[in-house]
Amino acid sequence: MLCIAVSLACSCKSSKDANSTANSTTSTNAQTVEKKLQQNWVLENLNGKVVTEKDFSSLPRIVMTSSTFSGSTGCNAIKGNLVSKGAGLVQFQNLTSETKKCDAKKENEFLQLLRTNSGYSIENNKLFLSNQFGLTMSFKKG
């Protein structure tokens, strides 16, 4: 009986070790953004409304790589880190922006939505971003 108890305890421990190794590999891989996101994107829609150059000096753009992003709010340059926490999940972290004075009425709204973004989907060459409240922005390839 003692031998059985010891062998069960050892097999449980090695199973836990294998799982923790697999989980650490998964979390490392999850930080790389999917290839289909690694594009140039141009803002089309902000909080359910089509954007125009009246809202921004020029339309905001985002260029995504496997772990970073850069772009423009239409006036100010932006950059930061991208973190994926699984399929359909991406966050814009450490977002920094220039502080030039611009006539971009919706610049702050755009930046705030990027900071709170948590999810995405891609359909018909369009990128849809969302947060805990739902869809926030859509982009076309650019």
Question: Mind explaining what this structure looks like?
Answer:
- This protein is 27% helix and 37% strand.
- The protein contains two helices and nine strands; from the N terminus they run αββββββαβββ.
- The chain starts with a helix and ends with a strand.
- Termini gap: 68 Å
Return the structural class. Answer: alpha+beta
**Percent of residues in β-strands:** 35-45%
* Number of helices, where a helix is a run of at least 4 consecutive DSSP H or I residues: 2
Mean pLDDT: 82
- The geometry reads as globular
Order of helices and strands: HEEEEEEHEEE
- The percentage helix is 25-40%
Biggest sheet character:
9 strands, antiparallel
Poorly predicted ranges: 1-30
The number of strands is 9
What's the alpha carbon Rg, rounded to whole Å? 21 Å
Please render the helix and strand layout as text.
Blueprint: H1 2-29, E1 40-46, E2 49-50, E3 61-64, E4 68-72, E5 77-84, E6 90-97, H2 107-116, E7 119-123, E8 126-131, E9 134-141
Antiparallel strand pairs: 1-2, 1-3, 1-9, 3-4, 4-5, 5-6, 7-8, 8-9
Structure described in brief:
This protein has helices at residues 2-29, 107-116, and strands spanning 40-46, 49-50, 61-64, 68-72, 77-84, 90-97, 119-123, 126-131, 134-141.
Keywords:
about 140 residues, alpha+beta, nine-stranded antiparallel β-sheet, about 25% helix, about 35% strand
